[in-house]
Amino acid sequence: MQCSPPGTYSGAVDVLAKIVKNEGVLALYKGATPPAVGWAAIDSLLLGSLHNYRLFLLRQGMTEISPTGKPRLSLFAHGVAGLLAGWTSALIATPVELLKVKLQLQSQRATSDRQFQGPIHCARQIIRVQGIRGLYSGFTGSLAFRSNFFWMFLSFEALMRGFSGLAGTRFEISTGLANFLSGGLGSFAFWGMAIPFDNVKNRMMAYPYPHPYPTSSSSLTAVMKQPSFSLVVRRIYTRDGLAGFFRGLGPCFLRAFPVNASAIFVYEGTMRILGAEKTRS
Hints:
Elements: H1 12-23, H2 33-59, E1 63-65, E2 71-73, H3 75-104, H4 119-130, H5 139-146, H6 149-164, H7 175-206, H8 217-223, H9 229-240, H10 249-274
Antiparallel strand pairs: 1-2
């Protein structure tokens, strides 16, 4: 939806119907291998660094006094920790998402007709044409997109505090359920703020779509100039107006709650089991 020319699709349901009709059901899983393999590493780096950034900020005094009288990280500090963790995870996320975008944009029904036969073949061709740096095409877009983990983890902590305030009432819920709900609801704050940057990032990574990817470095400059973040922003606004920055928001919202609620539930539960140093009181 985000990278296709105007008029290609009328909405998410139209995308689904046309992909199944023209390419088959299995086409819905194009580009699944990079995230299936890479997201474990991405989320490990994101959440592992998040905890360490929280501890660092706690020791730097970005705290407030909790109702129990103990110091705890401020909401802003939780957001900053999310921001820094998002930037850190971009180191792995950028090449993984680049390969996913390249593979998903191929509309040929037969795999043999596609320019990229799979993620490894795609990575090799990018490196041959652009070098290792080519795997980080769209890195500035990825940084901007992942900056919005600020809102994700600020919202998560605010919701956790809200749920903790229900203790002793008939609405009291377990810590695990609070983690689940806070993670899912916090993801709405993330996507509401991040979707414009997701559009920019994906269009930077789609380069030079709809033209075929060049087969040599000499033909790279002949196709088009590698688009900068600001150039892509201007193109989106010129072609689609403000609405263009919110393409794909519906599907992102549909998947946001179950995916993020489950991830945060497992992460927070694991940290409790392992006895990790606490950052909230």
